[in-house]
Amino acid sequence: MVLALQIVLVISSILMTLFVLLHRGKGGGLSSLFGGGVQSNLSGSTVVEKNLDRFTIFTGLVWIVCIIALNMVQAYAV
Fold this sequence. Notes:
Layout: H1 2-22, H2 30-33, H3 36-39, H4 46-76
Helix pairs in contact: 1-4
């Protein structure tokens, strides 16, 4: 069970990183520094952005549940 939780944790961590990097920058941060601010008005669909938000939130919840479950297994292991 611990191994399965660790595998799910690693996969969800990689997916979280990819999903966060796929998000469009909203502010004047690093994304607009390299020309992302000019392209942000021209690209992206609202449906795609909403789905990406949903996938990111779901992956984050899976990540948090895996961390809590691994902590519980470690705390109550005899």
